[in-house]
Amino acid sequence: MSGNPSLPAPVPATKRRIQTFMPSYSVTWPTIARSEKGSMYARCKVCACDISIAHGGADDIRRHMDSTKHKSNKVSRASAGAITNFFAAPKPLSATEESKALMITKAETMMCELIVHHNLPIASADSFSSSFNLMFPDSDIARGIACSRKKATAMIKKVADLHRTTLVERMRSGPFSLSTDGSNDDQSKQYPMVIRTLGSSGVDSELLCLSILEGSATGENIFKLIQAALAKHQVPWANCIAFGTDNANVMTGRKKGVMAFLLEQHPQMYLSGCCLHLVHIAARKGAGCLPPVEDVLVDCFYYFKKSEKRQSTFKAVQALCDTEQKRMLKHVCTRWLSIGRCLERLLVNWEALKAFYKAEKEALDSARTPADSTHYAQKKVDSVYMFVASPTNKLYVLFLNYVIKTYDPVLLHLQSDEPRIHVLNQALLKVISALMTKFVIPAAMVGTPLQDVDYKDPANQKRDGDLMIGQAARSYIADGQSNLRQSRIDQFHQDVRKYFITVLEYIFKKLPVNADLLRHAEVVDVTKRVSAKFSDLTFFLDAYPSLLPAGCTVDSIAEDFATYQCLELESCIKPRLDQTWLAIAQLTDETGAFFLKDLASVMCGILVIPHSNAHCERIFSTVRKNRTDQRASLADDTLDALLVSKAKPGHPCDAARQHSKADLKQLKQAYYLANKATSATAATSS
Question: Which of 114, 157, 214 is nearest to 638 (CA)?
Fold first, then answer.
């Protein structure tokens, strides 16, 4: 059939042509743009939808423009204003109205700062605003307060920015120290950058920022985090004279630790390790020579904690033993030197605990089966009873309760907010001397530097009867009712010697006893000015040129130092040394000039070197008070603003914390600018 001439020839099929978007469409119809779905679609900005133009191209667009949907959306869009119009900037006010508006802003700012200061939820601002209106109906300022949680958040962030700005200005112009430590927050790895610098009221610690570490916590990554924080605010490394941290290798390592990278930026930077942690570790290592009382304290606390029956039974036993009813305290192993209060409570309840655990053991033994021999509760009862039933163990607890108080003075010193770098060396020598005198004969110590005393030599140690073990332990040994065998007493005296030797070995090995910087730092002590040497001051001026004020020379400082040594300064003495130097800086000569201002600036610069890492730990405790389980979703930037404001020295009501008129104007616009930025971000993302 294919060859039949009477049939018509087949017509070839025409190929369908696909239309694609052309730039001329946007010229013809300005509301039409290229679609992200592909070249066969066009995007209508009015209807916020994609149009298929594969079939008709321009005709498809024309049909859409003539559709009822597009015309309706076009009318609605024309009648609707921009979202920024809802947050329009306020119209110019008269002088009286502006003054009143700033007073309202001042009240709102103080309310926000009090919320931060007392670790309250930001949502509490919703209640405060309406409450103030009801509490003070006759006050125009109270009626004008309108600060909900969103506005409060914006104002808190702005307050933090203002605090940060003043801190950065001081960091750029003078010496400061930087301290940081890693947190154990569940959501992010936080590293607060705590800055210690000279402010208007003295040397204070403030928070620069709460940096979040992405990736592993290596020395290099932590250094990059610090470097980024300083570079962001254009702070020179030369002004950073000390780095404070804990004693972890990742921080203090001289090869790959953070300190290794910091020394590349500032070769003379001083590493201020946390002596508080080192004393803690030294005392704990010494206790390792004694029976494990720490385990007993933990086991006792948790055995009673979640059992009302055991607690009531123990109270009845306390009454039978004529013991004051006091519960066992919780001992935290990471705060080992707080064990003193726990030991005192253990000694108070000793006889009651012995009777209670004896009854518990007998009850469990009577009901025990072979399978219960490894039961957790059974093992804990057995171990605690064996400990409290031993009179020898009580002797060790009495000694430990006595000797633990030796560390209290240095602990109070290291936990202080005041600048105490100038007395740190003497505080360490004092605790060393207190430990040595308890077991070393005076002849071996008199006239010999403490680090040269051969305390390990038995010939230099006191006899057993002369060892300082505390009156309670001495009376317990002398009491015949304790039934202590002489062999146990002899072993106890040997363990006491081991305790002191172990603690002193660790202190001399790890703590910066008689370090050059600590010895030279004593030059800032005003009470020792007569015997002070200018060479101690030049030690700091040579190592840290940023200590020298602008336009000042070493010779002029030497002249001021000589004058200062000959003055009567009793009227300038204040409770804190930094405040004393601020008072000295205000002394004037016959012409009214501040003749010791430059010397005071140098001395205060030395005082910014931290003596411990306690100020960082306080920041972490504040983190836990703000990001709680009930507020686990608190954003990192909001938490940063809360902590920066919280770390600002003083109280929000203090005169030194009041904001200037220029600051109040910025705070007044904070909510408007925050909403404007949010709207711009939303428009860009769409």
Answer: 157
Indicate the DSSP class of residue 528.
G
Strands 176-179 and 189-199, sheet pairing: antiparallel
Angstrom distance (rounded) from CA 503 to CA 201:
39
Report helix angle 293-305 to 391-403, nearest 10: 100
Residue 175: CB atoms within 10 Å? 28
Question: CA–CA separation, 470 vs 465, rounded Å?
Answer: 12
Beta bridge partners of 205: 196
Alpha-carbon distance 348 to 323, whole Å? 7
Give the per-residue SS3 of 247-264. CCHHHHCCCCCHHHHHHH
Contact criterion met (CB below 8 Å) for 434 and 402: no
Cβ 633 vs Cβ 188: under 8 Å: no
Strands 49-52 vs 240-245: parallel, antiparallel or unpaired: unpaired
> Each residue of 242-289: pLDDT tens digit?
999 888 889 988 888 999 999 999 999 999 888 888 888 898 899 889
Quick one: tokens of 60?
């498809």
* Cα separation, 187 vs 197, whole angstroms: 30
Per 3-state DSSP, what percentage of the chain is helix, strand, and coil (rounded to 5)? 60, 10, 30
pTM attached to this predicted model: 0.77
The span from the CA of 217 to the CA of 249, in Å, is 12
Give the up-direction half-sphere exposure of residue 352: CA atoms within 13 A in the CB hemisphere. Answer: 25
CA distance 541 to 605: 10
The owner of tokens 């009090």 is 114
Residue 40 DSSP SS3: coil
DSSP element (H, E) containing 244: strand 240-245
Contact 73, 47 (CB under 8 A): yes
Contact 179, 243 (CB under 8 A): yes
- CA–CA separation, 261 vs 237, rounded Å? 12
Residue owning tokens 């770098």: 421
DSSP-assigned letter for residue 457:
-
Could you read off the pLDDT of 398-449 as tens digits, one per residue? 999 999 999 888 888 888 888 999 999 999 999 999 999 999 999 999 999 9
- 3-class DSSP string for 119-185: CCCCCHHHHHHHHHHHHCCCCHHHHHCCCCHHHHHHHHHHHHHHHHHHHHHHHHHCCEEEECCCCCC
Q: What contacts 297, CB < 8 A, 6 or more positions away? A: 328, 329, 331, 339, 342, 343, 346
Distance CA 500, CA 467 (A): 11
Out of 106-110, 134-138, 329-333, pick the least confident: 329-333
> In this structure, what is the dihedral angle of CA atoms 552, 557, 558, 564, given to the nearest 10 degrees?
150
* Helices 219-232/258-265 angle, 10° precision: 40
Whether the Cβ atoms of residue 105 and residue 664 lie closer than 8 Å to each other: yes
Helix axes of 149-173 and 124-135: crossing angle, nearest 10 degrees? 110
Would you give the end-to-end CA distance of the chain in angstroms? 64
